[in-house]
Amino acid sequence: IADVNGTCLLSLGSLSTGVAWSTIKVPLAIAALRAGVGNREVVDLTIAQSDNAAAEELWSQLGDPAAAARQVQAVIGDAATVVESRRLRPEYTAFGQTQWPLVRQARFAARLPSIPDASPVVDLMRNLCLDHRWGLAAKGFAAKGGWGPGIAEGYLVRQFAIVPIEAGHIGVALAAD
Fold this sequence. Notes:
Elements: H1 25-35, H2 40-48, H3 52-61, H4 65-76, H5 102-111, H6 119-125, E1 142-149, E2 155-165, E3 168-176
Antiparallel strand pairs: 1-2, 2-3
């Protein structure tokens, strides 16, 4: 849990990082809007439906993989979180394989409402398709989840959200392996 100043307010459990999976689609969609590529329908599919083909289309419109990764990383605004530009596991997207520590993702979520060009994406995060309204999204928060197989074994499920509080909002990131 992080506040808008980037302060980690609480961290629980032993799982602290993992691949981003579909949660990376949020900064990807913002990067596409910022760059003026991808139409609104493709952005909608990327976020609300978590459509991988739509996300790949946005990624390809940002230039070569290294250029796309730089643009997505600029949205994240965290020099320590490096957006993956290579398909480390060929069957999955390069960007989805980004290592995104939970603390840094919570900080991103807390800053998200003030990030330029993020407003339409945050609105979509409040209107996910029914299959994606689980966890924090089921509570009505602006959220985005992702899941996929672990590196060695198991299955990684993660989600982040903007959670309103009396004094404004906080960013929350969670994961289970």
